[in-house]
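Reply to dn_fold:

You asked what the input looked like. This is it:
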Amino acid sequence: MYLEFYGLKEFPFNITPDPRFLYLSPYHKEAYDHVMYGIKARKGFIELTGEVGSGKTTLCRAVLANLDNTVETALILNPSLTETQLLRAMLNDFGLDPKGKDRLDYIEILNDFLLAKSQQGINVALLIDEAQNLSPQVMEQIRLLSNLETDQQKLIQIVLCGQPELQKRLARPDLRQLRQRITVRYHIRPLTFEDTMMYIRHRLWVAGNNGNLTFDQPAFKEVHRYSKGGPRVINAICDIALLAGYVDKKHAIDARCIRKAIEQLEGIQ
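and this is what came back:
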């Protein structure tokens, strides 16, 4: 609705995890580097955590987009799976035909695949999003996958990406063997006020803003105050604020537009 008014090519504050819009704050840059390092150095297990809407999924998408052809990847978005369903989903994502219905058959197919990729010099990585929702049984199955290795290296690198509850889950006594195998960990912190400003400007720039659309300082402060540095909430506020600015025929978003957006998010009429 407001794209033509502001001269934008696309909506800058969609909540979909588009890696083109990823803003690498210092925390997100460190998180990105940790995940990349864990995969490329074949560290086996990598744990990435952050609050709801902190940009974890977008960051993982960016990792997948920037890995070269020496790494083959799979992404599991639905963690509400049984052990057998998880293995079948992995095989499907790797482009394999999961013949049979037995879990041991799936593991054998996966092992053969990993060994063949290793002989070709290709690393394999599995990213599991919303991993805090994995059942203990599935987490144990994931731990067992780390036994697929040669004398020199891990055959599969597994990134567990989830909310802070994932840390609590992994602290359970019955999951200590899995916890001990995680050698790369990073927790994404909220954006600072300065990073909130840069985040908003970055997304506007990616969407095609040529300076015609601006936020004033009080507007940035209101966004950061309400969002507490959470990217998803920032997106929700700013999208509604742009609509409010469009209705008022403003190219400069001010605190009033932000407050109107917050009221709408809060359901205040």
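The chain has two domains: 3-18+192-265, 26-188.
Hope that clears it up.
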